[in-house]
Amino acid sequence: MMQEEDAARPPTRIVPVPLQMVSAYLVMEEGVIVVDTGYPGSEETILEKLREAGAAPEDVTLILLTHCHADHAGSAAALRLKTGGRIAIHRQDAENLRNGLQGRIRPLNLVGRLTGWFFEREAYSRYPACDPDILIQDELDLAPFGVRGRVITTPGHTAGSVSVILESGDALVGDLIIPSVLSGKPGVPFWGESREEIRESVRKVLACGPERVHLAHGGMCQATAVREAFGR
Ligand SMILES: [Zn+2]
Ligand SMILES: [Zn+2]
């Protein structure tokens, strides 16, 4: 009986939604999870992509925010209104979400130092505040939302950054990994709390054994490339 049910389960589809400077993702199985929501005003583009992919707004079971930055949480409130999906964020980033603030960003490299002022401007750092429905502490099982996988904590970019690990062999890591400006290889983000924590979190993701890693800035890369770049 169990096996028959498993055989009938739909395959996992991961649909990137290119938005202004960032990509959100639709993870589609029995349910649809939206991972990140772009800057404010991105909800219609996400809904359009959802329709294109053959799903309806009410199929969205969960709006998962990988962290509280404006390019990820900016359209969460609007998207919840239009889909009824619940919003989940790690409790460490929840306060910023409730205030519609991305918080101070700390540069981790030269690019971060040179561009930080731009992304700290009010227009790029404030967004409509919203109260999350689900606070993530350690892990969140995605089965109740119709997706085979889980959310794990991967701090370092922000204290409450999380990643999605799917049984399909895909990992969605938000801003934990960003391509290097010079080499294009997977690297540490331009801003963050701690380089060491970021590396530790990358190792945690790799230990889950994904084949493909989906970045919020920079698309998909093979896990082998991440392993090479991070020395594991
Ligand atoms: Zn970020
Ligand atoms: Zn970002």
Helix-strand blueprint:
Blueprint: H1 2-7, E1 13-19, E2 22-28, E3 32-35, H2 43-52, E4 60-64, H3 70-73, H4 76-83, E5 86-90, H5 91-99, H6 110-120, H7 122-125, E6 134-136, E7 139-141, E8 149-153, E9 162-166, E10 170-172, E11 178-179, E12 186-187, H8 195-207, E13 212-215, E14 219-222, H9 223-229
Parallel strand pairs: 3-4, 4-5, 5-6, 10-13
Antiparallel strand pairs: 1-2, 2-3, 7-8, 8-9, 9-10, 11-12, 13-14
The structure holds zinc ion (2 copies).
Describe the structure.
- Pfam families: Lactamase_B.
- This protein is of the alpha/beta class.
- It has a single domain (11-229), classed as Metallo-beta-lactamase, Chain A.
- 31% of the residues lie in helices and 25% in strands.
- The chain has nine helices and 14 strands.
- The protein has helices at 2-7, 43-52, 70-73, 76-83, 91-99, 110-120, 122-125, 195-207, 223-229; strands at residues 13-19, 22-28, 32-35, 60-64, 86-90, 134-136, 139-141, 149-153, 162-166, 170-172, 178-179, 186-187, 212-215, 219-222.
- Strands 1-2-3-4-5-6 form a six-stranded mixed beta sheet.
- The longest helix has 13 residues, at 195-207.
- The radius of gyration is 17 Å and the shape is globular.
- The model has no long low-confidence stretch (mean pLDDT 93).
- Residues 22, 69, 71-72, 175, 216-217 line the site of one zinc ion.
